[in-house]
Amino acid sequence: MHDTLMDYLRIYPEKWDELTEEFLRHLSMTGLSVILALLLAVPLGIAITHRKKLASVIIGIANVMQSIPCMALLGLGIPFFGIGEKLAVFMVFVYAFLPILKNTYTGIASISPQSLEVARGIGMTRVQQLFRIELPMAFPYIMSGIRIAAVAAVGTMTIAAFAGANGLGWFIVLGMNSRNYPMILMGAVASSVMALGLDFLLGLVERALTSEGLLPPSQIRNLSKTVRQRRKTMAFLLCAAMVFVSLFGYIKSIAPAAASGEAGQTGEAPVSDRKLVVGSSNFTESILLGNLYAELIEANTDYQVERKFGLSGAAVCFDALQNGDIDMFVEYTGTALMNLLGQPMDTDKDRVYQTVHKLMLENYNIATSNPLGFNNTYVMSVKPEVAQKYGLEKLSDLIRQSPKLRLGCTVEFIQREDCLPLLEQKYQANFKSVSGLDASLRYDAIEADEVDVIDAFSTDGLLAKLNLTPLEDDLSFFPPYYAVNFADNQLLSSDKELAALLSKLDGKIDEQKMASMNAAVDIDGKDPADVAHNFLKEEGLLTD
What we know:
It is a single chain. This protein is 61% helix and 9% strand. The chain has 544 residues and is of the alpha/beta class. The protein has a 5-stranded mixed β-sheet with strand order 7-6-8-5-9. Strand 1, helix 10 and strand 2 (304-311) form a beta-alpha-beta unit. Helix 1 packs parallel to helix 8.
């Protein structure tokens, strides 16, 4: 724990500029989400107060929306909003909407009928009742809902990093992938500070704007009219500042010019309005490969490169490429064949590549690069003591002993027809238990003896760090997973120089080089962008 805290304090100065940028991005997206929820939920809460049946329907719908898991909501939102900030704002808006709506409804519905009767008796109109009686008396309830929504929104927004929106969740994603606990702590602490800060500021607004007659006796100060007016003015200015920061920060984050400010640039690229977006999945190797292409393009062209890293898997990257949200991403031939193109499994690496190349171009107008050089296939892995206890050397041994073993694997491995379902169907594998885990967490699970076997990848740096024993695939069960770059064919056809530049990475990375880069991030704690930069220099692909 002491080492983690010391490392946390050490990397803070190194990451300060990036942390500040992502803190402001996170704050602006969170603020905009809550503002939009406020603008819709409060009027709707007022409207349904005197319509009980409609209120049940509306609040029921809001409850259903809030019950949808975050990752599912992100997946459902991609076809409509694409990836990035818009999708993040939509997701958090959904979760912020319900507490504001319910508290508005509850606050107004709880007002005594006698109070409203008196208001009507002295001749107040319906509008006057709303603004002079109902809203002031319901204000503490409404503010309570806003504060709950704001604090929850800060935490929920960290999930948006899996949809290319970055924010403070980006540090958590990087930390989880490389088991870099100080990096996780950096994102988590900043998120907590933001949540506490927002709650404190909104508490000041609530106290300043709440009528003293509604406060508990212990909080009544009998302030003068001048002091009360000054507090209200300050509260309104504070609200205006929060709105300004949210709107200005969001507009700045989605402006085309922002692309040139993305982390990872080296040197000064020529000013250009040409923009190119590189995507990646949410694990170390994919982020490294994304950085390789991003920096190669930045250093040799006038494109402004935007990085959309940490997307939640191959399917999300593929959808983003088809929708035009990204221009390229690296994936593996076996994954593309079965998961993206829906083709039957094939173990011939050349035939797999040719099928993927042909169908991607014909069906989606997506260009497939030549293989980058390495085959990152699955290797079922166990601790040495587990291998010795159960006599595990090969995949066939694992299948035979599977009823005694606990499997911890990615959700993708559980679902893909060429992985666990085929093991169970073709070879009658029957594990004692199966736990779906994030790609990075499965290493934590096996280290803590929570599971006995994991679905590692052959180039994972953590295989060596944890001294795991990879089992030989004596059944030739897993198809070839050669890394290739998928890119918008229209882009490459219109820019032959770019296509020639990208081809310089073809065949450049063998298994040993890729494993070494992964280890530099996962074991040595280096930044993926720095590791990619060093590789490009060593290969003579950078001029600086």
